[in-house]
Recover the amino acids of this structure.
């Protein structure tokens, strides 16, 4: 993936660029709002990572200008302002996701990859398949190896989000945001408990586990044999 | 409160009542004084008239004898507005006069004494009151002269009627003044307090209306506005300072965390152990969380004007949180139940309210386990009380002593019992700040056994719509 980082803190930007390159991405860096806008407007990127507070030009104004010009590259907004209202203003300006500083790199990577892989086309898949696990979004049914698995509505939503991002790491915060629509760090292991219940339904009676824990990052659903 | 109830509670109403009472008392005193003076004046007049007549008639008797007296009395008795006359001989036979006999009782009195008697007018009619004086003439004749008291009676009636009319006028005037003044004052005060409410809900740019009349309300509004100006400037300053602190302190924290993560990824010769690194990262995260919570409380207490307030269904909100947390409670062998009244609307920020309820549940998880072998029991309830909604989280744990309850809500306060448990001491302060942002409060009650933490919030005006992602807080993921 080709990623542009717009961040004025050089050390943080260098670290981020290095870590993203290690994860196999191509990374450019701009140190202020003007330079960031120039690059984003001229070169094709898969994802922009934009800090809110930037010299010369505010991060949000860069995003809304790009959106106004018809540029719909997904944007992850970084900010030291971890408040509810700031998230809302960040998303209203055209950001696609919002991450408060300081962040865990694993969290940022998971979000950047989820943004970059978002289907651009309008059509949305109606069936997700991972190995022999099938989720039918229209019929709201889940089956594995031809056997129906009854799920609670929230469990269905949880599995749906995991399968939508199959093969990718999904963090606990991402799950809380997308499945429950809550935006904060839960102090307890609340997500782990729900995952373990889901695991009990889709993995327990089968030989090959599909739902994996990625230590220090989150969860992923994938068929390891492939 | 109804508008009538409001009218009764005004200062104008109390003032009107006091003035009414004072005026009534004063005019009552005047009337009593007047009527007493007039009565004694009239009385003197009667005495004088009667005495004058008696001496005149006695004179007539001396010069004209009984015959002359009878003739004079007959003549006088026929005049309109005449006094009362009666002449009897020694045997009590009436010789002349315009009234019926009074009987011996009246005549037995000492000569010259003024008596109040009732009599029947000559020719019949209702009994009347009169003042009479009996005068002994020589030869056994007795002369009675008196004045009818009808005039007195008439005057007294007139006065009491005037009094009643006057009272009515005062009451009517008082009522009109009260309604007029209090309506006018209430209108201004209501406008002011409505603005005050909006300001307290976070819109610090709002100002009190000034109509330019320069009256006392205008002067009050002007100085309050000056105060608000200053508060707004201070709040703005506070917000900027917190934003800057957040940015300035979190940037080095981010670097620190980044380096730790990098060190953990690379490892290698002489590197610190993964365990040490991940524990340091955990500490780092704890620091960040405390910091975030502090900033968040400060922001909420500053009354963020653009915090998205939407109509919510209280029951649905609590049920959603319960659904998220029920498995967590069950995992430690406990149970979480919801007792929610349906259809209770709240006007609030979903995110913050959810955070508040979650903080309360997490507290119940940490501190609410009953002593002994009983499992953890957490009850979420949504009830209506008057104009408010109570969102409560109850556990069956040891609770908080009455003395500690107020302290428990303060920042960084950790009660003795919880010192050795993880936490920042900010959980309840955040809940309290959220409650206050919504115009409510956090109340800790003794549920005997256990603690009941109650968010008392004002009932939303609008009917709750279907609750969901209406806060505009969801993202496009």
């Amino acid at each position: 993936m080709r990623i542009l980082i717009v961040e004025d803190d050089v050390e943080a930007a260098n670290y981020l660029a290095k870590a993203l390159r290690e994860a196999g991405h191509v990374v450019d860096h701009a140190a202020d709002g003007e330079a960031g806008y120039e690059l984003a407007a001229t070169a094709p990127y898969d994802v922009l990572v934009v800090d809110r507070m930037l010299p010369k030009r505010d991060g949000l104004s860069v995003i809304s200008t790009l959106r106004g010009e018809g540029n719909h590259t997904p944007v992850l907004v970084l900010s030291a302002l971890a408040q509810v209202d700031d998230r809302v203003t960040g998303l209203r300006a055209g950001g696609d996701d919002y991450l408060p500083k300081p962040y865990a790199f694993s969290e940022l990577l998971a979000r950047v990859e989820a943004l970059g892989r978002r289907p651009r086309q309008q059509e949305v898949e109606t069936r997700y398949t991972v190995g022999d696990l099938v989720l039918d979004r229209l019929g709201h049914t889940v089956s594995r190896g031809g056997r129906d698995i009854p799920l609670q509505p929230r469990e269905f939503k949880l599995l749906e989000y995991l399968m939508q991002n199959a093969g990718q790491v999904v963090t606990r915060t991402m799950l809380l945001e997308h499945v429950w629509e809550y935006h904060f760090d839960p102090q307890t292991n609340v997500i782990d408990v729900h995952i373990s219940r889901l695991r009990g339904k889709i993995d327990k009676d089968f030989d090959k586990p599909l739902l994996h824990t990625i230590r220090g990052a989150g969860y992923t659903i994938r068929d390891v044999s492939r | 409160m109804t508008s009538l109830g409001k009218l009764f509670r005004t200062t104008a109403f109390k003032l009107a009542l006091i003035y009414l009472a004072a005026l009534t008392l004063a005019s009552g005193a005047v009337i009593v004084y007047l009527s007493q003076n007039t009565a004694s004046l009239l009385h003197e007049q009667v005495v004088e008239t009667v005495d004058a007549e008696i001496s005149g008639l006695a004179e007539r008797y001396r010069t004209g004898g009984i015959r002359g007296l009878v003739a004079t009395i007959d003549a006088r008795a026929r005049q309109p507005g005449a006094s009362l006359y009666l002449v009897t001989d020694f045997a009590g036979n009436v010789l002349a006069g315009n009234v019926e006999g009074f009987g011996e009782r009246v005549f037995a009195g000492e000569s010259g004494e003024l008596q109040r008697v009732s009599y029947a007018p000559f020719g019949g009619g209702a009994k009347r009151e009169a003042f009479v004086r009996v005068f002994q003439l020589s030869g056994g004749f007795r002369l009675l002269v008196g004045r009818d008291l009808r005039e007195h009676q008439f005057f007294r009636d007139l006065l009491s009627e005037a009094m009643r009319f006057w009272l009515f006028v005062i009451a009517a005037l008082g009522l009109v003044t009260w309604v007029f003044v209090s309506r006018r004052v209430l209108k201004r005060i209501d406008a002011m307090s409505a603005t005050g409410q909006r300001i307290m809900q976070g819109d610090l740019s709002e100002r009190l209306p000034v109509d330019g009349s320069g009256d006392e309300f205008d002067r009050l509004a002007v100085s309050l506005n000056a105060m608000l100006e200053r508060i707004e400037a201070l709040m703005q300053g506070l917000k900027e300072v917190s934003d800057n602190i957040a940015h300035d302190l979190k940037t080095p924290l981010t670097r620190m965390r980044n380096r730790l993560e990098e060190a953990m990824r690379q490892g290698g010769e002489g590197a610190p152990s993964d365990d040490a690194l991940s524990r340091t990262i955990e500490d780092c995260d704890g620091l960040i969380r405390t910091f975030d919570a502090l900033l968040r409380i400060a922001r909420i207490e500053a009354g963020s004007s653009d915090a998205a307030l939407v109509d919510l269904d209280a029951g649905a909100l609590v049920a959603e949180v319960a659904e998220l947390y029920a498995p967590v409670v069950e995992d430690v062998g406990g149970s979480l139940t919801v007792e929610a009244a349906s259809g209770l609307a709240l006007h609030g920020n979903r995110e913050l309210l959810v955070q508040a309820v979650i903080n309360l549940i997490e507290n119940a998880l940490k501190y609410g386990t009953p002593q002994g072998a009983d499992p953890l029991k957490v009850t979420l309830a949504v009830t209506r009380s008057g104009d408010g909604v109570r969102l409560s989280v109850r556990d069956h744990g040891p609770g908080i002593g009455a003395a500690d309850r107020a302290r428990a809500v303060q920042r960084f306060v950790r009660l003795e019992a919880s010192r050795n448990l993880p936490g920042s001491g900010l959980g309840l302060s955040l809940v309290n700040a959220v409650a206050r942002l919504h115009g409510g409060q956090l109340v800790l009650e003794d549920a005997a056994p256990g603690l009941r933490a109650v968010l008392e919030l004002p009932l939303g005006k609008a009917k709750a719509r279907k609750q969901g992602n209406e806060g505009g807080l969801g993202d496009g993921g």
In short: Chain A touches chain B through 52 residues (CB under 8 Å).
